[in-house]
């Protein structure tokens, strides 16, 4: 189980990261530095980047991934993830 921060591009990723930092009570931190820290344990990036990371987990034997969506009213983030990660 891991959190995620997704954006269609870098600008959207940074905006969503700012919202996550506010949610975490870390809104005063430099966004790019905090995002680098989140990358260590969360899935962070564009939908394609996140899909690549999930594929790496799969290759390592992981069979299930549970994503924690902390921005509960941000349906667009879920749509971005679904576009790339859900079987179609």
UniProtKB/TrEMBL annotation:
<dbReference type="GO" id="GO:0004497">
    <property type="term" value="F:monooxygenase activity"/>
</dbReference>
<keyword id="KW-0503">Monooxygenase</keyword>
<dbReference type="GO" id="GO:0016705">
    <property type="term" value="F:oxidoreductase activity, acting on paired donors, with incorporation or reduction of molecular oxygen"/>
</dbReference>
<dbReference type="InterPro" id="IPR036661">
    <property type="entry name" value="Luciferase-like_sf"/>
</dbReference>
<keyword id="KW-0560">Oxidoreductase</keyword>
<protein>
    <submittedName>
        <fullName>Alkanesulfonate monooxygenase SsuD/methylene tetrahydromethanopterin reductase-like flavin-dependent oxidoreductase (Luciferase family)</fullName>
    </submittedName>
</protein>
């Amino acid at each position: 189980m891991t959190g995620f921060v997704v954006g269609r591009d870098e600008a959207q990723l940074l905006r969503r990261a700012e919202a996550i930092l506010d949610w975490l009570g870390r809104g005063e931190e430099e966004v790019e530095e905090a995002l680098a820290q989140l990358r260590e344990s969360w899935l962070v990036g564009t939908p394609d980047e996140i899909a690549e990371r999930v594929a790496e987990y799969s290759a390592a034997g992981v069979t299930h991934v549970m994503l924690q969506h902390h921005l509960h009213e941000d349906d667009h983030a879920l749509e971005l993830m679904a576009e790339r990660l859900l079987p179609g």
